[in-house]
Design a protein that fits this description.
Strand order of the largest sheet: 1-2-4-3
Number of helices: 8
Helix content: 25-40%
Order of helices and strands: HHEEEHEHEEEHEEHEHEHE
Largest sheet: 4 strands, mixed
């Protein structure tokens, strides 16, 4: 077994795991891809850093949209701007380039690297197809709003993925040096929980009130206790929100935002039912009303086994090692929904 210690920035990049012996399928294609990406390395890095320095939130990725489309046009692609969505764009190869950043922390999730990886793959595929006279079609999608906007799902519903026989994507993650991860991710459901009570003066007549904040606190504590009885691979996390609160007023409204995650959609739905019971019990105990609104549901990634095996063969014989422990298996992505609908492949490295 190769050393599976996760990579650190101070590691020596020249230390590589031993490669497997044997030939890979169509090494001539791989040689053209390597040469093409190496030749574009400076331009790709500059574009990635430019996107990193201009973080934009979901559906606001106008700078990234213009930077990517200009770059692809420069390199001979016919680009469809504002493709179904205001900041989406497309050519033709089943590859996704994410663009959006996170509130407050910018590109901490590395979407500038996801975006530039998609660009690199599209350009390298184009070079290989032209040089080796390979027929085919490439669709490169600039996909907005992965962070809470679920842009890929919206693009799928608008037909943006209809032409694709295979859909590819990659994501930067922690993991061993020179490795590619073939893990999945967690299925995900987010929802808003709103408690409605009755306001009253907290000093003069608190008995007249129905405390919505109490209901929310009860729900939070219920779930904290529930965590002892859910599987260690499941996740439940949430926050409080409210308005017009004052220490001398019984709050008549409290809002909570919650997320439930699990390795499969079926497991996630089962845990979500148990979590919902915690909300309802809190409403009953406090005398408040509760409204639960599901915002979104994301599926886990279903990897295409044939494509994964082929990638593993190439990586093990030419580049490094395959990881099945790290990746984004503790996170979630709207690409999981695409993987339920297409012959997908999502690698992480």
């Amino acid at each position: 077994m190769p050393d599976m210690i996760p990579w650190r920035p101070e590691d020596d990049p020249n230390i590589r795991p031993p490669l497997q012996e044997g030939q890979v399928y169509r090494p001539d294609i791989l040689n053209v891809i390597e040469t093409s990406i190496d030749g574009l390395s400076g331009e790709l890095r500059a574009l990635s850093l430019d996107i990193h320095d201009h973080p934009e939130l979901k559906f606001e990725e106008k700078y990234a949209h213009d930077a990517y489309t200009t770059f692809m046009e420069k390199h001979g692609f016919t680009v469809t701007k504002k493709y179904h969505l205001e900041t989406a764009w497309g050519h033709v190869l089943g590859i996704n380039s994410e663009m959006d950043a996170l509130p407050g922390i910018g590109h901490a999730c590395g979407h500038n690297l996801i975006g530039i990886s998609g660009v690199a793959v599209a350009l390298a595929a184009k070079a290989a197809m032209e040089r080796l006279n390979i027929d085919g079609k490439v669709v490169l999608l600039g996909t907005p709003a992965e962070e809470g906007g679920f842009g890929k799902i919206m693009l799928y519903e608008k037909g943006a993925y209809d032409e694709m026989d295979v859909c590819l994507m990659c994501h930067p993650t922690p993991g061993p040096r020179h490795s590619i991860s073939l893990t999945s991710c967690l299925a995900f459901s987010s929802f808003t929980v709103e408690y409605q009570g009755h306001t009253a003066h907290a000093g003069l007549s608190p008995w007249e009130g129905r405390n919505a904040l109490d209901a929310a606190v009860l729900a939070y504590n219920n779930i904290s206790l529930l965590r002892q009885q859910i599987k260690p691979t499941h996740r439940v996390h949430g926050i409080f929100e409210g308005k017009d609160w004052g220490a001398n007023i019984i709050p008549d409204q409290a809002i909570m935002q919650w997320i439930v995650r699990a390795p499969t959609t079926l497991e996630m739905e089962d845990t979500k039912r148990r979590v919902t019971a915690c909300f309802e019990a809190a409403a009953l105990a406090s005398g408040c009303k509760v409204q639960i609104t599901v915002i979104s549901t994301l599926n886990e990634i279903t990897q295409n086994e044939t494509l994964g095996d082929e990638l593993a063969d190439v990586v093990l014989k030419r580049y490094g090692t395959i990881d099945y422990e790290w990746g984004i298996k503790g996170a979630s992505t709207d690409f999981g929904n695409i993987s339920y609908c297409a012959s997908d492949f999502h690698d992480l490295g």
